[in-house]
Amino acid sequence: xxxxxxxxxxxxxxxxxxxxxxxxxxxxxxxxxxxxxxxxxxxxxxxxxxxxxxxxxxxxxxxxxxxxxxxxxxxxxxxxxxxxxxxxxxxxxxxxxxxxxxxxxxxxxxxxxxxxxxxxxxxxxxxxxxxxxxxxxxxxxxxxxxxxxxxxxxxxxxxxxxxxxxxx
Amino acid sequence: xxxxxxxxxxxxxxxxxxxxxxxxxxxxxxxxxxxxxxxxxxxxxxxxxxxxxxxxxxxxxxxxxxxxxxxxxxxxxxxxxxxxxxxxxxxxxxxxxxxxxxxxxxxxxxxxxxxxxxxxxxxxxxxxxxxxxxxxxxxxxxxxxxxxxxxxxxxxxxxxxxxxxxxxxxxxxxxxxxxxxxxxxxxxxxxxxxxxxxxxxxxxxxxxxxxxxxxxxxxxxxxxxxxxxxxxxxxxxxxxxxxxxxxxxxxxxxxxxxxxxxxxxxxxxxxxxxxxxxxxxx
Lengths: 168, 282
Hints:
The complex is a heterodimer of chains A (168) and B (282). Chain A is built from one helix and twelve strands, in the order H-E-E-E-E-E-E-E-E-E-E-E-E. By secondary structure, chain A is mainly β. Chain A has a five-stranded antiparallel β-sheet, with no helix packed on it. In chain A, strands 9-8-6-11 form a four-stranded antiparallel β-sheet, with no helix packed on it. A three-stranded antiparallel β-sheet of chain A has the order 1-2-3, with no helix packed on it. Classes of the chains: A mainly beta (168), B alpha+beta (282).
């Protein structure tokens, strides 16, 4: 389900980057954001009632995109169908926000997860920090960490894949 | 919670929930305020209490001693017993409420700044995003954490550690250069229960205002007025990258705009200002 907050974040993202136009098709929804001359947004629904949730930045829980294609990372805050055979049965844990990615609670502490770590929906996998707000990111899926896709201490973008999880 | 015997007499009035509550405005006297002798961290205790008290939207926890007090990135935050004010307000938004937790570190800095200013009349400034300074030295640190304690609800723990009646001469020399206390600045003891009540009441006000739609943009001018980072040359550590330039402004989203030494501009939403100097000294 696509939330108003996700849409707002996307608009902000497009606004702040050199991207002029963004087109996303996800399940029942199509989004088209174009920046010239000003940012405009169209939300096109293929069904009459769209489940748009009025919550924003709802929880530290990560957005999970199941085997999202790499070109669509910032635009897949929800589960999408798998189109990559090598990644069948896996899910991506993506960043719910722009911020600094930390794999451990402090520089001297052990990482929350390593390759091969088993996670459940409630397992904390990392922290994303922005404006000094510490967001513990939960896996939101159950399985095993098979890829770590972001570098500790680096800035991550909204929707950027952080981990790949082989679903249990 | 374990009660321990105080190793020495605490100067001034001891912290107590009754003493704090008695200083709250009449309409806030029903707020839950807890005081402990010793906790691992007030953020952790407040988080646990918010989880246990499922109906409570807001509560406050203070402690004389934190055994695992921490600042940003797990840095320890130590304070001599009985002279600092260590506290956390934990709050929960209703399920599905459109909250903006990312703005809370800035809103909390403004609220705690108002609280300290109201009790002491001192000129307290903000180092972006949320350290409180007096005369360029740190007097209060804030750590805001999103806590997953109720499904479908945004919950936050906002911890603030203030150097209140700390004798600076008792602190390590390198800390004395960068930190100060309300005692050192005013020359008089400050009643910690009064300050605690001021902080709880200001944070609760901000919480209720956000429930009515308050955004950081509404307090943006106040931030600009009190932010001592602006106009300064800064060195910022963002993850593993150093960023150096002049802090120009803070926008309505709370981002810090830096004019980099190569002449380009950068908007920061993450990073720690490690060094600040006045431009004329560079």
